[in-house]
Design a protein that fits this description.
It contains nine helices and twelve strands. The protein is of the alpha/beta class. It has two domains: about 140 residues, 3-Layer(aba) Sandwich (Rossmann fold); about 70 residues, no CATH class. β4 and β5 form a beta hairpin.
Length: about 270
């Protein structure tokens, strides 16, 4: 009788995610030339860049949703190529930019789907699974919405549900692609505060975002992308200089921090 080999263990001392020189080609066209980043526990990293810079393609590549054509991706020390399905779900949860909103599905039912990666075929939720679902709903501030149909939720509420679904996986990394796009100021602030709380709890959060002011306000480190490549990495103060913003976005702007608060001052137009 033969037995399958036990899959290798994740390395507890390795970075949560380490990406080096990843490239992606689609129909012979280079979409992502060379992109790199690292993510540690208890850290929020924002990937920023103008439209068409390759941010979402980069995220899908290191999340295993689109196979990279070159480069190295390691999740907790293990190569992405060795991680499939449930094994990959153990280490990262992905919140897409545009989630489908089916009718007839309640908030609690949707979050239970996120927990399904822990279940064997035909296995029902255990008491521990139900507790994890309830905790995920609470962390996403959706208590009291459990029986609401997804189609009745606002954009901000739906985004919090998507985060709750991801949290139910129990993965140490949350990757969110433009989670505040098309949300108003109040919903954006609520989502941002929630992401920072997850980081304070020891998770690693990767935020794909076009909003420089938001990235500067909540990120520990910023990765700047332009024309399919990462061109700068560091703290917001180190990276988001007036010169770099001018070169990449073509606008005159300055990042200003006072008493722990940051603001992006943009020269929108000249007044005479």
């Amino acid at each position: 009788m033969s037995f399958g080999r036990k899959p290798p263990d994740f390395d507890p001392d390795a970075p949560l995610l380490k990406v080096r020189d990843v490239g992606v080609e689609i129909a012979g066209e280079v979409i992502l030339e060379s992109a790199s980043l690292e993510l540690e526990r208890g850290e929020l990293v924002a990937v920023v860049g103008p439209n068409g810079a390759g941010k979402s393609t980069f995220a899908r590549a290191f999340c295993g949703l689109r196979r990279p054509d070159r480069g190295v991706v390691r999740w907790k020390g293990l190569p992405l190529s060795s991680l499939k399905g449930r094994r990959l779900a153990e280490v990262r949860a992905y919140v897409p930019q545009r989630a489908q909103v089916p009718s007839g599905v309640t908030v609690e039912s949707a979050v239970r789907i996120g927990r399904s990666t822990h279940l064997k075929p035909l296995q029902g939720l255990t008491a521990a699974d139900r507790e994890a679902v309830a905790e995920s709903i609470a962390r996403a501030r959706m208590e009291g919405f459990e029986d609401r149909d997804l189609s009745t939720l606002s954009g901000g509420e739906m985004q919090r549900v998507q985060i709750a679904i991801a949290l139910a996986q129990g993965a140490p990394v949350l990757v969110a692609d433009e989670p505040t796009a098309q949300l108003d100021l109040g919903a954006t602030a609520a989502i941002s505060k929630m992401l920072r709380e997850l980081v304070s709890d020891g998770m690693g959060v990767l935020l794909i975002v076009h909003d420089l002011a938001l990235a500067a306000a909540i990120a520990d480190r910023v990765v700047v992308m332009s024309h399919g490549a990462t061109i700068a990495t560091g703290t917001p103060e180190e990276v988001l200089t007036s010169q770099l913003i001018s070169e990449v976005w073509g606008v005159e702007a300055e990042l200003v921090k006072r008493e722990g608060r940051s603001a992006l001052h943009v020269e929108w137009l000249e007044r005479h």
